[in-house]
Amino acid sequence: MDISYKRKTCHEDYEILEDISYETPDKTSHKSVFDLYLPRHGADLRNPSPSPVAVFVHGGGWRRGDKDTWKHFVFEDVNLLVAFVYWYFGLYGNVGREFARRGVPCAVISYPLTKLKIPWLFLELATSHVGTVIFLGVLLCLVIGAVAVIDFLTPVSLVYSPISHEHRDLRRFPVSGLILGHLVLVNLVTLVVISVQRSKHRLHSLLIGGFWVVILGLLYAAVRFEHSLLTAWLSTFVLVQGTLLYLNLNSKDHTHEDQITALSKCIKKVYELGRDTAYYDYTSIYLIGHSAGGHLCSLLALRQDSLEDVGVESSNIKGVVAISAVLHVEKLNIRTVRPLYLHPTFGKDPDIWSSACPMSHLQNKMLSYLPNFLVITAEKDWHLQQEATMFAKELESWDVHQQKVVFPQTSHLSIICYFDRHCKVLKTSVANLCVQFIKHTNSLTCDTDVKNAIRY
Q1: 138: left (phi > 0), else alpha (psi -120 to 50), else beta?
Q2: What pLDDT is recorded for position 454?
Q3: Stretch 239-259: mean pLDDT
Q4: What digits encode the pLDDT tens for the residues 263-307?
Q5: Could you tell me if 278 and 47 are in contact, meaning their C-beta atoms sit under 8 angstroms apart?
């Protein structure tokens, strides 16, 4: 079987098949694809002893993120500061890469996101705008500083028209003018980002052209006023932020049920690819999730009907690794986070909160099958540590392999940014913990299967 993918990237010890769709062609979008990371031995020839496969689900509070998460913060929120940070750490490709390097194929997925309601959407837009202002401001300062150093150390003036050092005067550029000019630049960069991604936002080229005509017209008109930079900033800000608000309001609104359905479809696609290519053992699937992704993985593993609805037996899920996961949804019912996380994703009905809570499903004792669990939390995860402890305690009453680890010197975000960082205290990394868990539980599962075969 030929795998339909958008791009193939080869490295020394692994390769990536990018943008494999798990939806039908008419429903495929940038949020219904995954990247498949394959060890080179598994990609170049059929492995006589195929390894299990991991499926990684990103975090982001159910309403942010992507398999290449920096792309979300560039093209959705247009928060270039966060985008740069995530690009620097390579989230979440760093997870797929480390699994593949250790011999475990890994699918890193995107899924549809929930969205905020007004007025919280205004807060989101303001935060994103400030992030871009800070990031471009730092870049601008670095550029100006570098030019200034060159300007004063060389006989040729790069910034000021007078050649001699005696005539150079930094006071020719008032601080207020620099700030306003920078803010205008931020708005123009944001509009460029929207223009480049017009097809994803389903914006017609004529509409984008109209935006630029208006922007350039405003800039031209602004120079006719006494306070030209102030006028240019206000005009471009209103237009650009109005456009972003329009795009957010017109985007599809999803719930956690839509995300569970998307994850189920992705697992089915991974199952089918493994069955048809023999790149990995399609009957031995491990779900790995960070934060909100950890919640989705745990919930799906405990809701067997969701997988069976798409034609995959729940027993094919051999294990779950929940990294800094939200395991008790009802704990989000506090004033500061309720409108930002609980209501947009799970609604306002407490019964739905309970049904979406992995802890509740575990406590109901109604499961016919339960996979193995590895629960990892960061040292500075605060309340999530308590949830993980309660969850692990509940798992003790089940006949499964379960393990809970608190990873030292990490926070909720750094635990996944430094996925491969070696911890001197534990003498291992999060990546190694995950792979060891997979290989150990897979050997236990294989032994059990052999015993059952002998028995029958």
Answers
A1: alpha
A2: 36
A3: 91
A4: 999 999 999 999 999 999 999 999 999 999 999 999 999 998 999
A5: yes
The DSSP code for 338 is: I
Q: Are residues 327 and 371 in the same domain?
A: yes
Inside any domain, residue 347: yes
For residue 1, being part of any structural domain is answered with no
- One domain, residues 141 and 88: no
Inside any domain, residue 23: yes
- Per the DSSP assignment, residues forming a β-bridge with 35 are 108
Domain of 350 in residue numbering reads as 7-115+254-455
Instruction: Tell which residue, 66, 38, 170, 92, has the closest CA to residue 420.
Output: 92
**Does 185 lie in the same domain as 318?**
no
**What is the rounded CA–CA span in Å between residue 119 and residue 248?**
12
Of 444, 435, 440, the C-alpha closest to 102 is 435
| pLDDT greater than 50 at residue 166 | no
| Domain assignment present for 2 | no
| Boundary (domain end) residue, out of 207, 233, 249 | 249
Find out whether 86 and 69 touch, Cβ atoms under 8 Å.
yes
Token pair 């205004």 in the structure block, residue: 122
Residue 207 is predicted with a pLDDT of 85
Instruction: Based on the fold, state whether residues 111 and 124 are members of the same structural domain.
Output: no
pLDDT tens column, 62-79: 999 999 999 999 988 899
> Which of residues 454 and 386 earns the better pLDDT score?
386
54: domain CATH number? 3.40.50.1820
Lowest-confidence segment of 10-19, 41-50, 150-159 by average pLDDT: 41-50
pLDDT for 448 equals 52
If asked whether residues 349 and 395 sit together in one domain, one would say yes
Distance CA 285, CA 282 (A): 6
Exposure string (b/e) for 428-451, b if CB count within 10 Å is 16 or more? ebbbbbbbebbeebbeebeeeeee
* 299 conformational bin, left if phi > 0, alpha if psi -120 to 50, beta if neither: alpha
Element of type H or E holding 106? strand 106-109
Predicted local distance difference test score (pLDDT) of residue 286:
98
Compute the average pLDDT of residues 223-238.
Answer: 82
User: d(Cα 248, Cα 208) in Å, to the nearest integer?
Assistant: 17
State the total domains in the chain.
2
Whether residues 26 and 102 fall in one domain:
yes
Per-residue pLDDT at 107 exceeds 80: yes
**Residues 318 and 229 both lie in one domain:** no
> Which strands make up the sheet holding 33-39, listed edge to edge?
7-10, 14-21, 33-39, 106-109, 53-57, 285-290, 317-323, 372-380, 402-411
- At 156 the pLDDT is 58
Do 127 and 11 reside in the same domain of the chain? no
Question: Which of residues 249, 268, 284 is at a domain's end?
Answer: 249
